[in-house]
């Protein structure tokens, strides 16, 4: 949701929280202060840092709301999967934006990383963070960042050159057949829908491998390996195959499984495998399955059954 305001001459110099609250019944000063703190208030096209910022004639005021919590996410040691002098790997929770948006800077994973890595004895020195991955806000899972100049370029080359193995866990609607396969298409963004879709020409190649781990009435647990990293690749390919992700309403997924509400797309970035960009040793990193996905799996199994992480199933052939 976006609120837009055009200050009049009589508004010149008014505090931005007072100005917006006076012109919008649904946005109180208390709420505005929280939104400003997150980074969701803009004046003249720039993010406002202070509630006391004076409005000016000719500087359009915009307030962005993303419907998410106004309590900003903070990265903690419990989220760290791996760390050395060059890399930091974390388990991103669902519901957290990877990078800043118009609605928020504070509480995004990028900002949380900067805060987590900040040296308290050198508060003016900005931490080094190199981002080579993207995960959708409602996708949970493993993400790795370079945190040293020696690792930035090499890690980028590893990911852009497909020298990394990426595996996901997905819960999809229906019974997925055959039990394993490969989906390959050209993906492009639709101009009207703004959704990704397979096209005959003009898109970017996307290759998705999948393997069924468990089948349930009305749903299937799938291990997915992506050989390319296109936007929404897994979501599009499985939806176009007739088996959208549970909870993925943008691509046709159901909002309920029986009586169980599905509050986000059931997709988890599970494992990464690649050579360390500096030390050249093999890294095998994985993120624990999040509580909401575990709870849904437990319900599907009737409270028992095998854990997909411990099943004795062979890996994809390479």
Attribute tags:
318 residues; alpha+beta; Structural Genomics Hypothetical 15.5 Kd Protein In mrcA-pckA Intergenic Region, Chain A; Pseudouridine synthase; 2 domains; eleven-stranded mixed sheet; four-stranded antiparallel sheet; 6 helices; 18% helix; disordered C terminus
What is the secondary structure topology, with strand pairs?
Layout: E1 2-5, H1 16-23, H2 29-38, E2 41-43, E3 46-47, E4 61-64, E5 80-83, E6 87-92, H3 109-117, E7 130-131, E8 140-146, H4 149-160, E9 165-173, E10 180-189, E11 196-199, E12 204-216, E13 219-226, H5 233-240, E14 256-257, E15 260-261, E16 267-275, E17 282-286, H6 291-300
Parallel strand pairs: 8-16
Antiparallel strand pairs: 1-4, 2-3, 2-4, 5-6, 6-8, 7-8, 9-13, 9-16, 10-11, 10-12, 12-13, 14-15, 16-17
Describe the structure.
The chain has 318 residues and is an alpha+beta fold. The protein has two domains: 2-64, RNA-binding S4 domain (Structural Genomics Hypothetical 15.5 Kd Protein In mrcA-pckA Intergenic Region, Chain A), CATH 3.10.290.10; 77-300, Pseudouridine synthase (2-Layer Sandwich), CATH 3.30.2350.10. It has six helices and 17 strands. The protein has helices at residues 16-23, 29-38, 109-117, 149-160, 233-240, 291-300; strands at 2-5, 41-43, 46-47, 61-64, 80-83, 87-92, 130-131, 140-146, 165-173, 180-189, 196-199, 204-216, 219-226, 256-257, 260-261, 267-275, 282-286. Strands 5, 6, 7, 8, 9, 10, 11, 12, 13, 16 and 17 form an eleven-stranded mixed β-sheet that branches. The protein has a four-stranded antiparallel β-sheet with strand order 1-4-2-3. α1 (16-23) packs across α2 (29-38). The longest helix is centred in the middle third of the chain and has 12 residues, at 149-160.
